[in-house]
Write a structure and sequence with these properties.
CATH topology of the largest domain: Rossmann fold
Number of domains: 2
Oligomer: single chain
Distance between the termini: 58 Å
Number of strands: 15
Structural class: alpha/beta
Bound molecules: pyridoxal-5'-phosphate
Shape: globular
Radius of gyration: 20 Å
């Protein structure tokens, strides 16, 4: 009875898989403020050439540069586990497998993209990056990448998280990044918000505006984004490529693949390589799991919208709740984004990927059950995917089906124990985002065409 399926370093993927090559229709292009497709030059102020090329590429396979693979080897290939003990606790005939992305130094899947992003900036002559971070996972991952590749990193951290997650901040500083509580008085965006609301908690949208403004205004500085964009989805496909080989080692193929979905990157990472098989006729269900409090895929519309709160970014065609949607303060900080990856959104729109929303208490219940059976304490984001997997496994217990379920454990929850504390104290609630509030923020979608 094997528990861990381990690949040797020689099986580390050599190429990223680009799902665009297998889409039934080409992805709608990003649009500028004039409603016309933005050319690569518009992006060149904040992104390096190789990443812009990847953003628009339709090549199926894109080679992973050797210096990136060398750093990936610090923690990749990551293990695939059969969740024997969880299966037993659920009394299910289903076979549950999980891919453990929590073994990276930052504790999540995010370094899969922070490393190549820092690398491509560096070889393009950029030695300084800005970014934003909410809960701190992306800031940590970019700080790590900057340290390993010799690129300076400045992080605008949402003020409320800066106070609430002090150890995420010290982790970023340990890896050599500069961290500021956003809004700051270092940027016009920050100063104007502070002038209006000096006591603000900050928001991801404001922090993005600050990081983008600084990068756009400095020749030596670019901006890095941890999710949503096509090149980020691309870099994460190492997860699913490895998982396919590991499922083959186990002698199985998944009936269903689950990932939680904030911006969409860890879901894309595990699911897209299986989509290649689906596009070739294989039966496999791909399920993106989101919170009921931020139901982008299940209750948002598929439309052009801004990527940030203030309207600085190009318009992306995606599932969105409206760029001025204010998510309630649920604990899965990484899932509180108004939009989702355009590629994931398109696949949901075309009925090729399923989406499900799960209430907060069920996700923590699943996280605790996972910790008490498999041992690993999952990140509050990852518990969403685990909860959906448990639902499917329970269904199998009823029907007697022996389905094979694969879930991505996107990260561990070691820096999120205050959220578990609040769950144990009975202080957390379910929150269904009201339909009227969504309708209201959808009224502010930009007019296109
Ligand atoms: C950031 C994060 C997420 C959400 O981002 P995606 O781009 O949707 O993957 C999920 N899980 C963890 C552990 C994260 O750090």
């Amino acid at each position: 009875m094997t528990t861990k399926f381990l690949l040797p370093e020689t099986e580390l993927p050599t190429h990223w898989y680009n799902v665009v090559a297998d889409l039934p229709t080409p992805p709608p292009p990003p649009l500028g403020p004039d409603g016309k497709p933005v050319g690569p030059d518009a992006l060149a102020a904040i992104f390096p050439g190789p990443l812009i090329e990847q953003e628009v590429s339709a090549e199926r396979w894109i080679p992973i540069p050797e210096p990136v693979r060398e750093i990936y080897r610090l923690w990749r290939p990551t293990p695939l586990y059969r969740a024997h003990r969880l299966e037993r606790a659920l009394g299910t005939p289903a076979h549950i497998y999980y891919k453990n992305e929590s073994v990276s130094p930052a504790g999540s899947h995010k370094p899969n993209t922070s490393i190549p992003q820092a690398y491509y900036n560096k070889i393009s002559g950029i030695h300084r990056l800005t970014t934003e971070t909410g809960a701190g996972q992306w800031g940590c991952s970019l700080a790590l990448a900057g340290q390993l590749l010799g690129v300076e990193v400045r992080v605008y951290m949402v003020k409320i998280s800066y106070g609430q997650k002090p150890y995420r901040r010290s982790l970023m500083q340990t890896w050599g990044a500069e961290v500021f509580a956003s809004p700051t008085n270092l940027t016009n965006a920050g100063r104007s918000i502070l002038a209006k609301t000096p006591d603000t908690d900050g928001s991801l949208g404001i922090a993005i505006s600050e990081a983008v403004e600084e990068a756009a205004g400095r020749q030596d500085t670019n901006y890095a984004l941890g999710s949503v964009l096509n090149h980020v989805m691309l870099h994460q496909t190492v997860i699913g490529e490895e998982a396919k080989k590991q499922m083959a080692m186990a002698g199985e193929y998944p009936d269903m693949v689950f990932g939680c979905c904030g911006g969409g990157s860890n879901f894309a990472g595990i699911a897209f390589p299986f989509f290649a098989d689906k596009a070739a006729g294989k039966q496999v269900r791909l399920v993106a799991v989101e919170p009921t409090s931020c139901p982008t895929l299940t209750k948002g519309v598929y439309a052009y919208d801004f990527g940030d709160a203030t309207g600085l970014t190009p318009l992306l065609k995606m599932h969105t709740l409206g760029h001025d949607f204010m998510p309630p303060g649920i604990h899965a900080g990484g899932l509180r984004y108004h939009g989702a990856s355009p590629l994931v959104s398109q696949l949901v729109h075309e009925g090729l990927v399923e989406a499900v929303a799960i209430p907060q208490l069920e996700t923590f219940e699943a996280g605790v059950q996972f910790a008490r059976t498999e041992g690993i304490v999952p990140a509050p984001e990852s518990t969403h995917a685990i909860a959906a997997t448990i639902r499917a496994a329970r269904e199998c217990a009823k029907t007697g089906e022996r389905k094979v379920l694969l879930v991505n454990l996107s990260g561990h929850g070691h820096f999120d124990m205050s959220s578990y504390d609040r769950y144990f104290a009975g202080e957390l609630q379910n929150f269904e985002y009201p339909g009227e509030a969504i309708q209201e923020s959808l009224k502010h979608l930009p007019k296109v065409g």
